[in-house]
Write the structure tokens for this entry.
Amino acid sequence: MSVNFLIHSAKEIQAVIDANASEIEKLDQEIGDGDHIFNVQRGIKLVIELEAVIKDLPMSKALNQIAMKVLSGIGGSSGALFGTLFMTMAKGNDIDNGVDYKKAIEIFADGVEAVKQRGKADVGEKTMMDVLIPVSNCLKKGVEDNKDVKEILKEAIEVAEKAMFSTKDLLATKGRASFLGERAKGHIDPGARSSQLMIKTVCESVLNS
Amino acid sequence: MSVNFLIHSAKEIQAVIDANASEIEKLDQEIGDGDHIFNVQRGIKLVIELEAVIKDLPMSKALNQIAMKVLSGIGGSSGALFGTLFMTMAKGNDIDNGVDYKKAIEIFADGVEAVKQRGKADVGEKTMMDVLIPVSNCLKKGVEDNKDVKEILKEAIEVAEKAMFSTKDLLATKGRASFLGERAKGHIDPGARSSQLMIKTVCESVLNS
Amino acid sequence: MKKFMNSADDFLKESLQGFGAAHQDIVNCHYDPNFITRATPTKEGKVALISGGGSGHEPMHGGLVGYGMLDAACPGFVFSSPTPDQMLAAAEKVDSGAGVLFIVKNYSGDVMNFQMAAEMMQGPNESVLTNDDVAVEDSSFTTGRRGVAATVVVEKIVGSLAEHGGSLQECKALGDKVNKNSGSMGVAFSSCTVPAAGKPNFDIGDDEMEFGVGIHGEPGRRRDKMKSAQEITNELLEAINEDLKPEANEEILLFVNGMGGTPLTELYLIYDNAKNMLDKKNIKISRSLVGNYCTSLEMQGASITLTKLDEELLKHWDSSVHTAAMRWGV
Amino acid sequence: MKKFMNSADDFLKESLQGFGAAHQDIVNCHYDPNFITRATPTKEGKVALISGGGSGHEPMHGGLVGYGMLDAACPGFVFSSPTPDQMLAAAEKVDSGAGVLFIVKNYSGDVMNFQMAAEMMQGPNESVLTNDDVAVEDSSFTTGRRGVAATVVVEKIVGSLAEHGGSLQECKALGDKVNKNSGSMGVAFSSCTVPAAGKPNFDIGDDEMEFGVGIHGEPGRRRDKMKSAQEITNELLEAINEDLKPEANEEILLFVNGMGGTPLTELYLIYDNAKNMLDKKNIKISRSLVGNYCTSLEMQGASITLTKLDEELLKHWDSSVHTAAMRWGV
Ligand SMILES: Nc1ncnc2c1ncn2[C@@H]1O[C@H](COP(=O)(O)OP(=O)(O)O)[C@@H](O)[C@H]1O
Ligand SMILES: Nc1ncnc2c1ncn2[C@@H]1O[C@H](COP(=O)(O)OP(=O)(O)O)[C@@H](O)[C@H]1O
Ligand SMILES: [Mg+2]
Ligand SMILES: [Mg+2]
Ligand SMILES: [Mg+2]
Ligand SMILES: [Mg+2]
């Protein structure tokens, strides 16, 4: 994983999020306050705009710049959570000497753990954690089991999608949707959907490279 | 013209105004502020409610009570103008000794003159004066020419209707509609319409009695 | 129609009752006939200021009763001018012997009803007629221009003079001067609904606005397509400037008024856009007022008022005021 | 969508600019990162109060910056909580050494962003979390209740204590107490439109209302048919009373808050209807606040907040305040 790969992925994510914008917008209107899509789009745009600044930086510095941009440029729950993800990844051990797929999975898993701490939400509470945690577990398990990287990524894509759909019938207990009680049921969580799309895009990008 | 006749006429007017309420409402919405119908309906209701209080009073006192009720109960342009009409009629000479049709026409004409003074509007300015003045003139002329009272009343009804329609293509120079310039054209003046309906109702009431 | 109301008949009364109860320290509400006075009597020798008009423009005028502004306000039914008995009862209550100044917006209903009250009154009285709306032409053939948001400015400034001992004639003269120094124009995005009517006063398309709208939702100069805030603001200011002709370096009050249904955020945005334009013309914004003061029920829209300020006006604008809707220095 | 705006991207900035320019005497607006401070620096030894949240609730919080209330406010994008860098920049500017109290509405975005700022901060700081909305249940399985209009009351009362020398711990304790003493609930007749979205946040029928709505137009307890003002008021008060359990003869603040698109007249009518019900229960309305303070863009609707008052709270409620949106005694 190189800084260039990060920038390239951000651009691919932008295309995918834009293509699904109205669906995501609707999800946060139904069970939230309707801003999630704008938060995410603003964040991605800001990251892409960092290209010139970060492209020649070591990984830790680049990730840190991304983290600060996300943290200061998005706002809302997703800003704090995605910001935490990148801040933690930036602190990964020895990442300036190259990040292979195992390392990438390790720092991603650390990031997800930090996000979990920040938001105090676990699987089953109808948030992005419903996607992030299973995907992180699946990736880690894949490495443990010495699976082929392609295999691991394909599984991750499937896990993310299933997890995303699983939020539909959950009661929400964290985030804005938690205020809704039974009325939140029947709607996919917007953060779960946007996270799933991002994960899918990054995994496919690796698979196709 | 007796106090009983006044009360009876008010009830008949109420029925006619109610039947034409949505048309009148629309007229004041188009070139005014939309309250004319409510002002008129409120006024008539208040006058009818006076029945017990005024039915045994001499004409001057009864008219004065009506005037005060109209003046204090309606508001807006029409309240001031109709109030002025009745206040002036109440001051008619010798009216407590019976009001025949000639006397009735005399005090009505005095009332219209006072309304004209109050509002400083003449024929052609797209107000109720476009109806009141020609009707008053027609009634006076009928008496002068010694026409039969039925004849006079029939003529008055026709004059009122023509006058009312004439306001449609006028530019307004008095009242709210005057602020509209050319845009007032093509709409009948609400006060002209309500006045015409009242005149028609009273005249027909006499004709049918 | 969606309103917080129980019945159209009780709408005004219940609202007045709530207003009176919420501001007991400032006002007293009287009923049948309806009028609002200060909670404390007019001090002897002080000219009493009375205004009024149809309801639906709140906080004007009831919210402007109090120290440094009005002594009494007479609310009519929604969009119908009040009646002479209201004004007479109010005058009787607040006249302390120095006379009564009526502040009247130029609508024939208001003018006639206040005139009748003035004619019936015993004591000395004068009237100031406000007609700041530049949207409509002022020709000798019409009733003239409408009185709109500058009425608030007139009431503030004359209120201060009266509080500080101005005579009836001086108060009238200052009121006329403030009115002459002011120009306003408004625009509406939506209609308003009179409670008794139950349906909007006018229809307006999703992409339309009523330019030069009146404060009763009366039609204005023209029906226009929606435009950007900066374009709307420029057009409003151009119309006002054409009439008021403020000179470069002249000091003005910039008053951005909401019509009832437009949030503060947008009013401040208009203020910003107005400042852009006035700065370019070197017109100096010396004082500011932003908020819902002269409204049209729940209409979405806004108006801009400019008042040219001199030292006298500045002094009276700045002096203490304590009403439900405007308060400073006390 | 009909708004006074030039572009969704510039909406917030232009509105802030207008706000800053219109109230130069009270506030200073700072940009990139955006925050609003008082025009004069925090006096030494005074605890600095900082609040913030997504924009769209104006005048909260920017309009509550000034003497006797906040030292700074951090506006996020519309309905998106502000970011830690805003809070850090604001804290750096207004911390005079006595520490910073963050006043945060209980939404996970606000909570997390303020937490991150607090963790990154050098100096002593505390946070008060408001969660007065009784519309949603407070169970140990959820994030708890939402913070809504009582935040204004917390900011007023704690602002006074801070102004009068309260320590950071005392300010936090008082804030928690006011929050605990308060309950709110709202209802919406129409949706609101986020500028970037360009279309309403939710659909609602001509005869429907959203009962227990959130201040971002989030769904509430239930979708209901329109009812009379007295019925709506009773239901709101019952829900609040059930939670707050004010006792007979207990003194309360009755705060009728508009959501942005509802005119003052209707808010006063709600006040009247609320007074009817509270009088019957012998609950004593000692203080009142009526107006648009905690809004949801142009949403038509209102909320009621009750705060139980004791001597301490009364004293701090009454003390002087000088902000753009609330001003008395000065
Ligand atoms: N405590 C939490 N932990 C994890 N994810 C959360 C939490 N709270 C909210 N989220 C996620 O954030 C998403 C909403 O983000 P966004 O709309 O950008 O912020 P906000 O909720 O502040 O409006 C939700 O759909 C949910 O997935
Ligand atoms: N100066 C005037 N002279 C005569 N009639 C007038 C004058 N001004 C208004 N009117 C009449 O009053 C009518 C409107 O009455 P109404 O709607 O009750 O009062 P307002 O105009 O105050 O809303 C107009 O249609 C017109 O006929
Ligand atoms: Mg959201
Ligand atoms: Mg009318
Ligand atoms: Mg009227
Ligand atoms: Mg949000």
